[in-house]
Amino acid sequence: MIRSLFSRTRDPEERRVRAWCRKTLGLTPGDIALYRQALRHVSAVAEDRPDLPDNERLEFLGDAVLDAIVGDLLFTTYPDKGEGFLTRMRSKLVSRQQLNMLAKRIEIERVIESNLARSQESSVPGNALEALIGALFLDRGFDRTRKVVVRLVHTHFDLREIEKEDRDGKSRLLEWGQKRRKKVEFVVREEGGNGRGKHYVAEVRINGDVRGTGHGASKKVAEQDAAQSAFRSMRSRRPRPSEQAQDEAPARMDGTGRIATPRRATKPKMND
Question: Which of 121, 130, 165, 223 is catalytic?
């Protein structure tokens, strides 16, 4: 009865975060302050509350923990594959685009504290997800964090589809443009952050038109991501008959130049 009374008087935001964690991660937070910090963007920290921590430090920790967990998962799943393959697979799974997609699918925005307009929140969900992994690691340890992350990966991503993905999309796209006498350019149009947190945004322009955008922690990763985005754009657009032969992505790209499509979440599998 005392416990029930305490639950009713608890801060509403705290109750909301606890409920979300139970539903999405399958666990009840121990140190709730860590989880709330992980979900607090720097824009939500008032000038008169410098003592209120944002999620940047936890994001740094979560990034390292996520790399270790995904690396271990791939190492075990592909015992005969070399370092290059494993590195490429891990880069794709933990790319900013994939993390943002995963964060939105688990509706992390429902519990994020941020004062940014939605148009400015391109990387906020993915960053919060990394910070949440850092908080989970500190609260529950590596093994429990690994179980949660592995469930999320298996629920939302198909490793077999990612394995089929073209390993050098930039070269393939340049070759495609050369054969069709189209000008293909890769332009890094934005970079932010500093040090380990630096972030790049690249565009693919075909005959001057932007046909793909990519994100990454390096220019190379951002360009590869942009190439895959361009392939998807070319396959999804509906060209007029007069354009069909020249402007359509080549058939041999299918199945090799695409990014994995996340599967619909099944809530029972996500709960522990």
Answer: 130
| pLDDT tens figures, 11-31 | 888 999 999 999 999 999 999
The CATH number of domain 169-253, selected from 3.30.160.20, 2.60.40.1590, 3.40.50.300, 3.40.47.10: 3.30.160.20
pLDDT digits (tens, 9 = 90+) for 86-131: 887 888 889 888 899 899 999 999 999 888 766 555 788 999 999 9
Q: Does the annotation mark 130 as catalytic? A: yes
What's the CATH fold of domain 12-165+261-270?
A: Ribonuclease iii, N-terminal Endonuclease Domain; Chain A (1.10.1520)
Q: What is the Cα–Cα distance from 56 to 38, expressed in whole angstroms?
A: 8
Q: Does 63 qualify as catalytic in the annotation?
A: yes
